[in-house]
Amino acid sequence: MSITREQVAHIAHLARLKFDPTDPEEAEFYAHQLSRILALVEQMNRIDTDGVAPMSHPQESPLRLRDDRVTAENRREEYQQIAPSAEHGLYLVPRVIE
Amino acid sequence: MPAATALHQKSIAAHARSLRKGEYSCVELTRHFLARIESTAAAELNAFITVTADLALEQAHEADRRIKAATGNGNGGGDDSLLTGIPLVHKDLFCTRGVLTSCGSKILQNFISPYDATVVSRLKRCGAVMLAKSNMDEFAMGSSNETSYYGPARNPWDTATVPGGSSGGSAAAVAARLASVATGTDTGGSIRQPAALCGLTGIKPSYGRVSRHGMIAFASSLDQGGVLSRCAEDAAIVLHAISGFDPRDATSLQDEVPPYADPALLDAPIAGKTIGLPSEFFGDGVDDEVAARVEEAVAQLRALGAKTTPVELPLSAAGIPCYYVIAPAEASSNLARFDGVRYGHRAAEYDDLTDLYAKTRAEGFGAEVKRRIMIGAYVLSSGYYDAYYLKAQKLRRMIADDFARAFEKCDLIAGPTTPATAFALGEKNDDPVAMYLNDIFTNAVNLAGLPGMSIPAGFDRRGLPVGLHLIGRYLDEATLLNVAHRYQQETDWHLQTPPGWE
Question: Per the CB < 8 Å rule, is B207 touching A59?
Fold first, then answer.
């Protein structure tokens, strides 16, 4: 199935990818390429998978449990040193609540 | 009498012996590799994103101290190991504390990791010396190393061709003997395909064998760390060092790791082993010369006493469509963490929080990464989930079951690693689908979580290497390494060095 420019714009928004407003062909470019990829992916439909249990992971055993105790050390200051903008132990982003 | 083997041509075990005899020091060995790395010819290969010369020399001095102080022979008893003083490179997807870890992306062009990946810390503990961080396709998404923000790496066998990907820099580095060995990661073929294209030995272990802690995630149910090396013995030594349980990875296996490099495993006769040959791996679409080399390699294994039997993997062609749903779906989720807030690139100007995310990501990711994120977001979106993602998961089960049935008749499976030898830079750049088909033989192995290996099996008429692909039962890396090692005792394809790099 092919994807329209409008659908690409919607997917890009879901994925938080902004198209270049100065490049009107960008959405068209991705619409074309994503359609090609989906055509490849749809070869799956040639195979009957009715009644097959989905496999999400090579290990199907339940996740390992561990003792409920603190093991990680607090390295907040070190981690925040590489942040684009941090102050008083907080990551700074544009205001979201007025 | 041949001249003494050049330092860059020696195996890890040979270095370990020489370093302990005092024939040369770890510092001398490291300087030797650094000099090769700093040559003009090496610069053309663009195999590295960061060269860590000062750190390497510091680690080499420490390795010399350890070897001097140790009473052991490198196999225990001392504070040293076979890998003490061995110069290696890490794919730039492994986090390295205090060193740029870019994952081939602009979005991480300023990311100095605050911690080491488990693979990195284990090799550090062994005393291995890190020379550099190697080039790679952006976020490991690619089969040619051309999606790297830092420019493509080139194949030392012919610099007009690609080294493969995504671990292309690691492959170019080891092929040109710029490092003794390299780490890599493999989500759909990213160790095995570049190993094949560069004439190397590459192993992707079973899912869960090597800790993923500190490996920047692409597709979490498929990613596995592994090794690109000159020979199976070197691969066995490094794989043993990096394998084993890690409480920091929820999918890390607690199973005991066999001593892969132990002669009892590595040198064991392969007579009586049964090799499955899937007709699907030898049909149309495989280059004639590749097919011929692989058949010669299989004949060699038969001469060593292995039996062969036909097996069926009827769904192997479905691996590609299945993979290109599952891997992008997991990638779209994993790459959501790159938001310009906690680390990495942030757009200079933005209107609000959503705009900050969207501009940062648009600027920071390249086209292939954007394609995969969008495909992933699409196949997971409401209304399409069942038709794509759920369908792919069902197919994944059928593909894994196919392998299980084949392994009822054989101990390992053999075929070509890639349908053709290295292609020209730029040849498949405009067509993502043509690029994806490069991994047709490799990615089903990741879907099933099995171990896979590529070993050199000769050359085509242009002098480009051909890889023999070996696939093992779950957790049976030892058989792959054993068969590869025995094959390499009888052949010298793995010892061939690209012209100019001898």
Answer: yes
